[in-house]
Write a structure and sequence with these properties.
single chain; mainly alpha; Helicase_assoc
Length: 132
């Protein structure tokens, strides 16, 4: 799967001449998220030497240092800065929807420890996990 995504990225660069991925469809969104994950893994030294070499052609943006006044990691700040205003609104809507679901869960159960296999909202566990 990793090499498949790398090939998609190279094809995008060949076709468009740049690495800016518009999130017009699900495949583009997957590729964009994959790039963000690879940059993050590179930054925290979690990529194998082989994969680092494979990604040598990918420009490495100047990522800002982690914000000291909040808990948002710098790679997420950078990712949010890359989003257009309309994309940010969609991200915010999705985030608020999940946040409201978590608040409803807490109101019912008295805690935020969403079970991994919760039938009422199967996505909520993974969302909460990612927020932590």
């Amino acid at each position: 799967r990793w090499y498949e995504m790398l090939q998609h990225l190279k094809e995008h660069k060949r076709k468009h001449g740049h690495f800016t991925i518009q999130t017009d469809d699900e495949e583009s969104l997957k590729l964009r998220n994959w790039i963000f994950r690879q940059r993050h893994k590179y930054r925290i030294n979690m990529l194998s030497e082989e994969r680092r070499e494979e990604l040598a052609f990918l420009p490495s943006p100047q990522l800002p240092p982690a914000c000291l006044c909040c808990s948002l990691p710098s790679h997420r700040e950078w990712a949010l800065e890359e989003l257009s205003k309309s994309e940010r609104k969609e991200v915010d809507k999705g985030w608020m929807k999940r946040f409201e679901s978590l608040k409803a869960f807490k109101a019912i159960h008295g805690h935020t420890k969403v079970p991994q296999q919760w039938d009422d909202d199967p996505i909520l566990f993974s969302w909460v996990f990612r927020q932590r």
